[in-house]
Every structure is written in C-alpha cells, then in structure tokens.
Amino acid sequence: MGHDHGHPHPTPSGPGALRRMLIALSILTTFLVIEVVVAVAIGSLALLADAGHILTDLVALAMGAFALLLARRPPTVRRTFGWHRAEVLTTVFNAVLLIALAIYIVVEAINRVGEPTEIPGSWLIIVAAIGLLANGVVIMMLRSSAGDSLAVRSAYLEVLADAISSVGVIIAGIVLLTTGWMYVDLVVAIAISLWVVPRAILLGLSALRILTEQSPKSVDVAAIERELRQIDGVLDVHDLHVWSLTIGMDAATVHLTTTANAPAALGSSVLGSARVVLGAHRLEHATIQVEQQGQQGQCSELSW
Fold it and tell me: In degrees rounded to 5, what are phi and psi of residue 60?
C-alpha cells in the first residue's frame, strides 16, 4: 500500500518577485550605460570592474526572471517536475560568470602595474555614488524574495557585491583626490574581484548541491530513518531518499516493511505515523510505500 501525500509546492517566488526583478533590470541597465561610458572616457579600471559586476547583475536578473517565468509553467508528461530546476542552472552560470570576470580584472590590473593611468578622482566618486544609490534601491526590492528563490538570491548577492564595489570605487576616488596615488585604482579593482570570488563559489556550490541530488542541509536524514524505524509495526526502512527540486521545494520517498500478512489497519497506522515523522522534518511532499515482509519486489536488487 502506498501513498503520495500532496504535490510539490508552487514556486515560492510569485508574480511580485518577477515584477521586482524586471524593475531592477531597468534601473541597472540605465546605470550600466552611464558607468561604461565614463569608465572608458577616463580609463578607470576600478570603474570598469564595477561596471562589469553590474553587467553580471543584469545577466543574473535576466536569467533569473526567465527561470521564474519557466517555473510558473505547469508540469507536462515529458517534464513531470516542470521547470523549477531552471533557476538552479542559471545560478551555476552566474557563479561561473562572476569568477571569470574577477580573473579578467585581476589580470588586467597586473598588466597595468608600472603604467598606472591618470584618473580624475571626482568622476570616480560621482559615478560610484550614483551606482551605490541604484544598487541600494535594487537590494531593497529583492531582499524580501532572496530567501525563497535561488534565482532571486543569486541576483541579490551579485547586486550586494556590486554595492560593496561601488563603496570601494568611492574610496579610490577620495584617495586620488587627497593623495594623488594612482595605483589605488588597481588596488581597489583587485580587492573588489577577490571579495566577489568566494561568494560566487559558495553560490555555485549551493546550486550544485541541488543538481547532484544531495539531501538539504536542513534535513537530518539519519534522524528520519531512526524515527521511522521506531514506528510500531515497522520491521525495516529502505529506499529513503531526500532531495531538493529547488530552494524551498524538498521531497522524499521511502519504503517501510511490516510483518507478513499484517492486517490493513496496521498498514494504515504505519502510513499515518510516517506522515507525522516526515512532516516534523518539513517534508510534506513525500511518497511513502508500505509493504509486507516478502513483498519488497525488486527493491532489494537495486543498488540505489
């Protein structure tokens, strides 16, 4: 006797999150054009590094918005889980893009050692301050949905990183105005890149954890198995699998073995108790198979 309790929850990020991401795209696109023009005009690598991070913000937002649109499409006979994994894939791509950009900036900064570019500090301060304001607005817009969607969290972290880089550019402008030390532009560019890399790696690893079907960190699988074995009438627990479809959408499957020729009432009791155990671990979407001893079928022959 088996039971499939419920269905995967709809994606936590609804129309509101998508609308906020589209507005954020408009704000950052406008500022990106301004920053790139100024960076090229005055030859600032720090400003160009900041513009590059904004570009990755835009890519993250665009791909995240597209992923959220896909996730809203209903499941089909070919894609029974729908498109919820799309946002996980975009997160991996964004992490790789951030790391590649950081490497480029560091290499370019090293190439400029010995030939620093003379840069007007006032322009750095003005443009970076505008960028900080734009990023601040976007951060406030995305923060409420960052915990519910990997795509939104990816975009949120990238915009947050860019806000920090804008602060670094402002500091570089102040140093240039007060001391005239031209190498500060290169130092800030490298610092911004090195600050972003570990966060990009952590972001990518969180997405890969889902793609490789690892159990969520918030779920104690050993404790679940132990509690299931303690249910009256359960002789064995096998084929226990816990995974995440995407952030906030965890699922589980498990087979429970009872005594041979057990009455139907025992199977119902075991099923109900198992639901309670899994529900206590926030696994409301679970497929539970209750089978009598000697009727496990091919379960014992499978290696996974």
Answer: -60, -45
